[in-house]
Design brief:
Strand order of the largest sheet: 3-4-2-5-6-1-7
Number of strands: 18
Helix content: 40-55%
Strand content: 15-25%
CATH architecture of the largest domain: 3-Layer(aba) Sandwich
Oligomer: single chain
CATH superfamily of the largest domain: P-loop containing nucleotide triphosphate hydrolases
CATH topology of the largest domain: Rossmann fold
Shape: globular
Low-confidence stretches: 413-431, 458-462
Radius of gyration: 31 Å
Mean pLDDT: 84
Distance between the termini: 97 Å
Number of domains: 4
Structural class: alpha/beta
């Protein structure tokens, strides 16, 4: 069995990995870490969820120098905020053992925290291209000390139009850095990056060149527009944890509102949400507090969530490539899944083309969500609700013990008015609330007189 120490990773980092429960490297880590530790450029094709983060993260922790303020020594470029935060969460606990800082910078959050982090000095900077260029324009950092550049999900960045910003960033590095490139596909745009910025790279291929469609059940259901929401609800209640893809932000919000009214626990995710809202949505979905994630194509790539049983194309994808990446959220790591496309009458021709390009041939049929395999899904209560329920339970127990001690029952409010209340005591004699109040005042006055006080002025008698 290959161990991390066999790949050139030091004993301190190996122990840190063991403390995290990571003892055996994945295939992509075995293939890429030795070459990265030798300082070679790497061009690796590997799918999401294959262990890429540690494949490039461990060499960074082992190799990069200590950073000066505003001068990071390594850079990881990612296409989305979610992926940037995911990488930071994986690498931070390991880097902290080496007294190294990991900082993620992306849009949708304040500049202040990111600038203050850069001023302290950051060894590993995880960044989305747009926000990084903004910070460079504001002179919040310089890339002159960058030793290693990692491009993660390079094909996704090409799809999002980030190629020119990525080139500007690479060319801003003071000296030619070692470049490690990871991509699910090595298409024309990615090949240009390899030709322009890498020197005799180590070419690595992990898994199939294309996302496999064979492990998924593909269903193309003919629907009327007004039927889509009802069919989606019935499908996810059968299938369990699911992702529903819509084309627009407004479509995500509208579908989310309609499904919430039907009592479906869900999260929504799109580019119009701020980072705190996006983090909360992903956290709820990953932890099991919501059954469904309704999202735009921002969730089609770079998000690794296990045990997703169903993907629904509520709106059609733009092309076959998007269909593959949306559908690839299910049937991962050897499991199976179902992919449902809700096809309106005028969308049939588009789906015919997608089927042909993807390499599948399925009939368009009437929807039958009740025929889907029933998957169990146990909803997890939010922590705040669990704490509240626990507090309420303890309060009920305390009140019950108090009633037992005084031998009385709970107040029985009279229908005749708010001020009139009846209490069930040991001899079942009703008491008027006002009379009981007067009685307490008389007893208090008698006690004051016995102690030598006069009236309510609380002065001692002479």
């Amino acid at each position: 069995m290959v161990r991390f120490s066999d790949l050139g990773i030091g004993p301190k980092l190996v122990q840190s990995l063991s403390d995290e429960g990571i003892t055996e490297p994945f295939e992509v880590q075995i293939a890429s870490i030795p070459s990265a530790m030798q300082g070679r450029d790497i061009c690796c094709r590997a799918p999401t969820g294959s262990g890429k983060t540690l494949a490039f993260g461990l060499p960074l922790i082992e190799m990069v120098s200590q950073a000066k303020p505003k001068r990071p020594t390594s850079l990881i470029l990612t296409p989305t905020r979610e992926l940037a935060e995911q990488i930071r969460n994986v690498l931070s606990p390991l880097a902290s053992k080496y007294e190294m800082d990991v900082l993620s910078v992306y849009g949708g959050t304040s500049y202040g925290k990111q600038r203050s982090g850069l001023e302290r000095g950051v060894e590993i900077l995880v960044a989305c291209p747009g926000r990084l260029l903004d910070l460079m324009d504001k002179r919040a950092l310089t890339l002159e000390d960058i030793e290693i550049v990692v491009l993660d999900e390079a094909d996704r960045m090409a799809d999002m139009g980030f190629m020119d910003p990525v080139c500007d960033i690479i060319e801003s590095c003071g000296k030619k850095p070692q470049m490690i490139l990871f991509s699910a596909t090595l298409d024309d745009d990615v090949s240009k990056l390899v030709d322009m910025y890498q020197d005799e790279p180590e070419i690595i291929g992990i898994g199939p060149e294309e996302i496999s469609m064979d492990s998924m059940e593909h269903l193309f259901w003919k629907v009327k527009p007004y039927m889509k929401t009802e069919i989606s609800i019935k499908s996810v209640m059968r299938a369990g944890r699911s992702i529903i893809f819509c084309r627009t932000r407004r479509g995500v919000d509208r579908l989310g509102s309609e499904m919430k009214e039907e009592g479906v626990e869900l999260s929504t995710l799109h580019g119009g949400l701020n980072q705190r809202q996006r983090d909360r949505a992903m956290s709820k979905f990953i932890s099991g507090q919501s059954r469904v994630l309704i999202a735009t194509d921002v969730a089609a790539r770079g998000i690794d969530v296990e045990e997703i049983n169903c993907v629904i194309h509520y709106d059609p994808p733009d092309d076959a490539k998007v269909y593959k990446h949306r559908s690839g959220r299910t049937a991962r790591a050897g499991s199976t899944g179902v992919v449902i496309s809700l096809v309106k009458g005028n969308e049939k021709r588009r789906y015919d083309r997608i089927q042909k390009e993807v390499g599948i041939k399925k009939r368009f049929s009437d929807p039958h969500p009740d025929d889907l395999e029933k998957k169990e899904f146990k909803l997890v209560e939010p922590r705040s609700k669990r704490v509240k329920n626990k507090h309420n339970q303890k309060s009920k127990q305390r009140n019950s013990r108090r009633r037992d001690r005084r031998g009385g029952g709970r107040p029985d409010y009279s229908k005749q008015g708010k001020r009139k209340r009846r209490f069930s005591n040991s001899n079942d004699s009703p008491r008027n609330w006002g009379e009981e109040k007067k009685g307490r005042k008389k007893r208090r006055d008698r006690r004051s007189q016995r102690r030598g006080y006069r009236g309510n002025n609380r002065k001692r008698s002479e």
